[in-house]
Amino acid sequence: MSYTVKESKTYNRAAEAVVKSATEVINKLGGSQSKRSKPEAGSLEANFNKKVGSQPLNNRIQLEVKIAAQSAEQCTISIVAYPVDPVGQKLMFGVRGQPARTVVDAFLGGLEA
Predict the structure, then answer these.
(1) Residue 49 CB burial class (10 angstroms; 0-12, 13-18, ≥19)
(2) Which of 10, 15, 58, 92 is positioned for an S-S bond with 69, CB 3.0–4.6 A?
(3) Which domains does the chain have, with CATH numbers?
(4) pLDDT at 49 > cutoff 70
């Protein structure tokens, strides 16, 4: 069973505006941005340490977001989320519940609000 969640959506907003909103949502939900994040290139990476917003999680989650402009007023957002161990390696077993789905749902909910 795979614990990875992959999702894509199209937004009728400029890519720069979506990147800014996504960064704010990640910070609001309690995620810490990785040093590999490159907002100017539309690439965000964040770690959620067993909590998203005020909701506790059973595992740490790595969230990777890529935002690509389709036109001046439209962009596509691609999300990949998966559980990681304390040193950041992807977990392949031993995950309780669906923490990656919880983080993706909270992220998309905050982005659409």
Answers:
(1) middle
(2) 15
(3) 5-112 (3.30.530.20)
(4) yes
